[in-house]
């Protein structure tokens, strides 16, 4: 029997779709697999942007990871990246992010692409504000040919509006959802960046962290987060809470992808001069990719703060998983230094006692007012006007009243006075007697901790960390292992994290998405 013409056509289409699927797999695509598909002519940057826009349209109504999309700007940037690649000769090494789509957290200004993305920190008070240009990290991404697709959702004001607000919620994007277990927390504040990466809505994302905001959501959503040493990446054009602690970093699905992005965004920026100049000394000659070393655990000394961080019910999945991981680390040549203790951990973990809260309140007002003063246009120009806006629009009708106690407490601060100087001295002392001492005395290359448990220890000194997927709890919620170290120790942390990731390969994509797309 002859096949009907329609059936023939259908078979051809199916065959063509199958061929394309073999040539390029969108799900779990990496910077390297995308570059490979570009090079083989199986994919263009424009095609990739279209695939991700399609996926975002399908998934975001359920996941709330995106605040704004700049589709036209992204397609134009993709065309430029495609043209650059067409014109490049065989031997030219294009920057790693060339043609790769990226979502940036909604506290990072991305106005320079002509596409008018607004940075609103999730707040309706900032709708209609226009940054004068790109944030320092966005400038670097664009220079490397990355395609800025849009902004990712977050906890409003990076979790600094008031205590008790649901993690990942903002009046602009609603409640961000953990794609593994939608009823579980996504953790925050870089929730949208993390959800988007986890659910394959984009190739790579950028988040920010003051104290836990990259590490915690990365852990809960099975992705890799790098929280760089403070100053390694510029904070210019970013709404930050604390210049002492805030840092901008990549959130991706693999260590290698995160390292490709890190390499593109580090460096001196005259608009964040002091911190980026100081941290520039840490940038290794030849960049960070050379530390993607499969044997990177060999000879590394890893400290386990057992009492403070590894408190699991005996017989729990976490306990078994971390025991397995420690065995793997030993087999890979890592040296575990167990049962270490930092005497003041209880104070470090208490933001009031450590001085961290007092400093954050004062620094937030200074940084926010300075950011707002630099905007090209804005309906609000100060923290006090934002507080007025919130009073006039009591929480945005959609959620119960949350209040704004952190904003109010911040507003009554008055710069870095005696209280804040005392807080700084206390934090410095906690660092010196805490992480600095334990690393020195035990000759450690890194500390290891589950999930984001070490976030305050690492926040107060501006120290770096990398989280890598480590397992899934009995309810299906992912958890990570975190490697942290002294300032500038990214090369070691990358070796450790990459070697661990390659030996364990724990990450798997959330399964719901197969039925959605
Ligand atoms: C930015 O905000 C303006 C209005 O405030 C809006 O017209 C524009 O569409 C927004 N940009 C994007 C990309 O959504």
Automatic annotation (TrEMBL):
Signal peptide: 1-23
Domain Amidase per the UniProt entry, residue ranges: 48-453
Top-level division of the source organism's lineage: Eukaryota
Keyword annotations: Signal
Stored InterPro entries: Amidase_dom, AS_sf
Presence of keyword Signal: yes
Record has Signal as a keyword: yes
Protein's recorded name: Amidase domain-containing protein
